[in-house]
Amino acid sequence: MDDSQARKFQKDLNAGLVALVLLAVLERSPEDLYGYEIAKRLQKANEGEALFKEGTIYPVLRTLAAGGLLTSRVVPSYSGPPRRYYRITDEGRSLLAQWSGIWRQTRGFVDRFIEGTDS
Amino acid sequence: MSANAARSIDDYLKQLRAALEGQDPALIQDALYDAEEYLRAEVAAHPGKSEADVLELIASTYGAPDEVAAAYRDTEAKVKAALKTPVPAAAAGTSGWKRFFGIYLDPRTYTSIFYMLLALATGILYFTVVVTGLSLSFGFAILIIGIPFFLAFIGITRVIALGEGRLIEAVTGERMPRRPVHPGPPAGWLTRIGEMLTDARTWTTLLYMLLMLPLGIIYFTLTVTGLAVGLAFTAAPFVVLARWLGLDADATVFSDDAHIGGFMLSDHSMLAALILGILGVLILTLFMHAARAIGRGHAHLAKALLVVPGG
Question: What pTM was estimated for this model as a whole?
Answer without folding.
Answer: 0.58
